[in-house]
Amino acid sequence: MKARIAILSLAILAVAAATLSAHDMFIKLDQYFLVPGDTLRVPILNGTFTTSENGIEWERVKELVVLDSSGVTHPGPRKWEITAQKTTTFELVPKSEGTYVVGVSTLPRELSMTAKAFNEYLKEEGITDILARRKKLGQMDVPARERYSKNVKAVFQVGDKRSPSVATPLGLGAEIVPLDNPYVGQRSGKLRFQCLVDGKPVPGMTVLVGSQHGTGKPKESSMTTDAQGTVAVKITRSGKWYVKFVRMVPVTGGEVTYESKWATITFEVR
Q1: Average pLDDT of adjacent 10-residue blocks, the chain of 270 residues
Q2: Model-level pTM?
Q3: From 30, 65, 146, 176, which residue has the greatest number of CB atoms within 10 Å?
Q4: Does residue 66 lie in a domain region?
C-alpha cells in the first residue's frame, strides 16, 4: 500500500513539474528569411521554446494580426490546423519585400493551482513582485486561481528591404515591440524592445531573454525594464532568439485571485 502511495505521489509531482514547464507560448518559425511569394508555414508552440504540449484551436484565438510596410491586416485562419506533434500551424504568403511582424493573441482562460505549484511558477517565470507580495501578506500557503491570456509575435524578413514600421505596436493585450529592426546590423550591438500591457509601458518588470543555436538547449537570462518599459538585448551569437514577460496583478471580488497577460516575441540572427 505504501509503495502504491509513493508511486502515486511521484506521478503527481511529475504532472506538476510538466505543468510548470509548459506555460510558455511562442511563434517559432522554421525560417525567418524568405522571398516574396513564399508560403510561410507558421508554427505556434504552446509549452516551451523546443516542444509544444498542446494545440490552440481557432475558437480560442482572439486576434491574428500581420504588420508589413503597408500597415496592419487581420487575415483569416488560412489552413489552421494542429499537427500530430501538438503544434498549431497556419499559412501566410508575404507578397512584397520588407520586415514583417505576425501576432496571435488568445482569449482568457482560468487555471487553479496549489500554493506550492503557484509559488514555483512565480519563481520560474520571474514574477518576483507577486511572489514578494504573497510573502509580505503571509499568503505563501494560499492556493491561487489565475485568469491568463497569451500574446505571441514573430519578426521575419522578406527580401532585402528593411521596414521601420516594425516598431509599430499591434494593439494586443500585452506585447513586446521591437524599437530596432532585428534585421539591421545583426552582427553586433543591442536591440531595444518595449514591453506594453494594454498599450502602456511597464517599468521595473522582469523580462527573460533566450537564444537557441541549432537544436541545442536555449540559454536564458533575465533583465528589468527601465522607466519607459524597455530593455536592451545584447546580441551575442547566431540562432533563434526570444524575449518574454508575464505581467500579473491581484484580483479581488470573485473566484479569480490573479490575472496575467503573457507576451513573447521571436526573431533570428544569422
Answers
A1: 39 38 86 97 96 96 96 94 96 96 98 97 93 97 98 98 95 97 80 97 96 91 97 94 97 96 96
A2: 0.90
A3: 176
A4: yes
